[in-house]
Amino acid sequence: MQHFFFTIFLLLSSSCFIYQTTSKSTIEPCSNSDTCSSLVGYTLYTDLKVSEVASLFQTDPISLLTTNAIDISYPDVENHILPAKLFLKVPVTCSCVDGIFKSAFVHYKTRPSDTLSLIADTVYGGLVSADQIKEGNPSAVGSDPSVLNVGTNLWIPLPCTCFNGTDNNLPAIYMSYVVRPVDTLAGIAARYSTTLTDLMNVNALGSPAIKEDDILAIPLSACASSFPRFASDYALSVANGSYAITASHCVQCSCGPGSRNLYCMPASLAVSCSSMQCKSSNLMLGNVTVQQTGGGCNVTSCNYGGFVNGTIITTLSSSLQPRCPGPQQFPPLVVPPTSVGPDVMFAPAPSPSESGGAPMDGPHSSVVPASGSVIAFPPSGGPSGSASSACLLNPLASFPIAILLYLCVKYVISLPL
Ligand SMILES: *[C@@H]1O[C@H](CO)[C@@H](O)[C@H](O)[C@H]1NC(C)=O
Ligand SMILES: *[C@@H]1O[C@H](CO)[C@@H](O)[C@H](O)[C@H]1NC(C)=O
Ligand SMILES: *[C@@H]1O[C@H](CO)[C@@H](O)[C@H](O)[C@H]1NC(C)=O
Ligand SMILES: *[C@@H]1O[C@H](CO)[C@@H](O)[C@H](O)[C@H]1NC(C)=O
Ligand SMILES: *[C@@H]1O[C@H](CO)[C@@H](O)[C@H](O)[C@H]1NC(C)=O
């Protein structure tokens, strides 16, 4: 329930009373230094290389892959071509911009025949509106938004939420999700292991009715770290089913299915890394030994304690537990996708074998597309942005309706026709 009080609805563009379509998104107020890791749900509009998707969101290709539990040990994986319509979770830093959480660091460099609506609706899949890009880039866009100079650097203000990294007092990471025509709130709740009530609370929905292009904040259960504040990966949190890569690509952490404990081990790409052995023991990061004793099970583990001044902090811990724990379960890794299934959603592979074995054992058999493939550009004949966009409302919940209507009318009148 606490989210209700933090959540206000923003009427996006196209919301003038003339056009009855209103897209909603959940916005969360913040103060200047607030920041968190968040995700956006993104559907590829065309075939794109891993590195191209990453650069659209200014994220690291390896983090993009591990967030989606895609095997990074695959050869030349950053140049792998991902198929159009693939759904990915993209990690973005959620920062406080003018009192509201947004992606502060996502930028886009315009290409020939780009329009604001093409960038908003197609390239960024409806995560942002043309008006929001225009409002966020007053000097770059100018008075005629249909004329964009090629190579203009545009800030892309994507919606994101932090809600203190918790949902119902349990660790959570929030994903901004654009509703598709086939979606129901119950279906989304089931897909992301949450409940209808929780989604309604988080998004302050009065009813479970949702519309195409609404943007929901979906809480994904997560495992939180307790690294010291001076660690560069302080507050690392990993969503259920994902991996996070940290410590200069040396350490990977995950939240095992059915567990709330963050589990970290050397990353498969670890090359020149500082020592990952626990002091005064022969255990490496991620190693666990169990010893049945009269009083219970003596569990000793070598754990990751954060990345401090370029050093991987390890801590050895021992505890006496009533029962010996089973093998650690890891999120199943998938090979880089080359096609999209019939339901057009990227679904992770079925659960790992009961061995709970190493997470890097994914199959390596699927075919890598030839590296000379054509890089697709956005279709040039996309919808052109113009008359249907109407008033841009500032996200002030208490804005009197009369002023909104006035601004609407004023904006419509001022539209170049
Ligand atoms: C945020 O969560 C932390 C614990 O994770 C808690 O100590 C703190 O009070 C919370 N802050 C707010 C504003 O809820
Ligand atoms: C994590 O995901 C798995 C499968 O996706 C699901 O069965 C499980 O309930 C989830 N765990 C939590 C704590 O949400
Ligand atoms: C300890 O961890 C390393 C690295 O993950 C692994 O190669 C090794 O097999 C583990 N040893 C034991 C005893 O679990
Ligand atoms: C548990 O095992 C560790 C090393 O294996 C040992 O140092 C520690 O004393 C043991 N603790 C208990 C309570 O047996
Ligand atoms: C990191 O290194 C700097 C300079 O080398 C030092 O001043 C600082 O105390 C170190 N921080 C930690 C947490 O060790």
TrEMBL record:
CDD domains: LysM (cd00118)
Signal sequence range: 1-23
Pfam families membership: LysM
InterPro entries per UniProt: LysM, LysM_dom_sf
Record keywords, A-Z: Signal
Lineage: superkingdom: Eukaryota
Name of this chain's protein: LysM domain-containing GPI-anchored protein 1
Record organism: Nicotiana tabacum
Gene symbol of the encoding locus: LOC107770883
